Amino acid sequence: MNGNTRAVVVAVDGTAGSAGALRYAADEAGRRGAPLRIVHVSPTYVPLTPMLPYVPDDLTAAGRAVLSEAEAAVSESSEPGALRVETALLSGGRVSEIVTAGDGAGLLVLGRETRHGLDRWLLGATTAAVAAHASVPAVAVPADWTPTTTRGMVVVGVKSSHGAATLLEHAFAAASARGATLRVVHAWSLPDPYGDRIEQRTHAAQWLTASRMQIDRLLDPLRDRYADVPVEVVVLHEQPARALLGQADHADLVVLLRSPSTLVPVRHLGTTARALLAHATAPVEIVPAVGVQPATRSTADPVARPVATSTSAPSSSSNG
């Protein structure tokens, strides 16, 4: 094991929803030769009843039990001594504690969001909030993920040239590590349904040609460095989230870029990333745009522009 390799951090909550994340994190740590750090955030207060509150000792004991069970699950599924496993019991706000725990890690792994309805509205969506604020790549994993769930494909959604170098570098590395094909997907549509129908009918071929040419230019600097990675380019006339959800059914991993925000420290994920985090059948990794300046009007253009003059801007938000 390389002692300089950054840890893979996985957050567990003791529910079945984080089982896939734990398996994925162990698999990634083994692939990277990195330590696996399992973290659990214990609440400071649980509103059971006014007459029967949980005391801190109860919460600490419950948190330690969650970590012990997770560590045991990793030990049962790994070769003895194959992984160096660490655990950390944290206390406080779930999102902020997980984000802090991930600082400096090689990867932050989360389970798919399990809260729904009123509980989710009151307490918030942990997975999306962590992915929006993490300083390192964060991946959300379906509960039923197993190491045998392999399709030989990594999918990356490309919205524009802005930040694409960071995104594609990460996607190529992920495909190379898995011995997988990299499928680069760009989906476009116009927000106005009439304009979209007209553009599709009259200029679909030009959209396809222009998009492929620009994507090829983005890929050229990386093809030689990752000569072992077969590359496919797919350009679709489709709403981006719907297109990528369909692609996720054939992928081992979907990679998206979290675009930098001009409203620091306010950060958010776009509709495409939120849809993929909630519904994709494959793990979805959100890559922060480290060192990339927020897009301006001139740098936020999609990969391809409409050939004809239109009153509607294209929707091509294959990134987060």
TrEMBL record:
A family per Pfam: Usp
Similarity comment text for this entry: Belongs to the universal stress protein A family.
Signal sequence, renumbered to the chain: none
Domain UspA: from-to ranges: 6-142, 154-288
Lineage top rank: taxon: Bacteria
PANTHER family: STRESS RESPONSE PROTEIN NHAX (PTHR46268), UNIVERSAL STRESS PROTEIN UP12 (PTHR46268:SF6)
Organism classification: Bacteria, Bacillati, Actinomycetota, Actinomycetes, Propionibacteriales
Compositionally biased spans, kind Low complexity: 308-320
Region (Disordered): 297-320
Protein name: Universal stress protein
